Amino acid sequence: MTLTAHNQDATLIRSAFARYPSGVVALAAQTPDGPTAMVASSFAVGVSLEPPLVMFSARNESRTWPVLRRSARIGISLLGADQTDLCRRLAGTGPEQRFEDDVRTLTEDGAVLFAGASLWLDCSVFAEVPAGDHQVVLLEVHTLWHDEKAQDPLVFHGSAFRRLQKSA
């Protein structure tokens, strides 16, 4: 076991935080320039039930979040274990190949939802709170859909994508 006093070593902090597994979501919306998406592994549900709120954090340097935040609605898709390629494309910097042939749905209010997910949320920005080099973003859930028979979620742990393993 390695015990280290708190310091500002970003590599050490990132490595330590990577020990905590998390699901991976795609946040996407139809914008005036076309569909726009970003990926977050800092996503949390159950922030509030009344109103229903979820949250994630966006880097202050993000070029995508300022575009998405102006959308009336943002779709959240909990990515499935076999959607690693989609996740990598959506997390990339070049918009030209982000939305290749992926099956997606556009809601009436402009939220983009990806097929193959096990949970879809149609949300709007509720609040943003500055948090160091990120913004903590609270999103209000207006509509949700889930598929009980869907695949397990994509999990990010130890700086790698992983699958859940069912116990015997």
Strand percentage lies at 35-45%
User: What is the overall number of helices?
Assistant: 3
For the largest beta-sheet, the strand count, sense and barrel status come to: 7 strands, antiparallel
Compute the separation of the termini in Å: 29 Å
- Give the helix level as a range of percent: 10-25%
What is the CATH class designation? Mainly Beta
Your description of this structure?
The chain is mainly beta and 168 residues long. It has one domain (23-152): Electron Transport, Fmn-binding Protein, Chain A (Pnp Oxidase, Chain A), CATH 2.30.110.10. The chain contains three helices and twelve strands. It has helices spanning 10-17, 65-68, 84-91; strands at 22-23, 25-31, 34-40, 44-49, 52-59, 74-78, 104-106, 112-114, 119-131, 134-146, 155-157, 160-162. The strands form three sheets. It has a seven-stranded antiparallel β-sheet with strand order 3-2-6-9-10-5-4. Strands 1-11-12 form a three-stranded antiparallel β-sheet, with no helix packed on it. The chain starts with 9 loop residues before the first helix and ends in a 6-residue tail after the last strand.
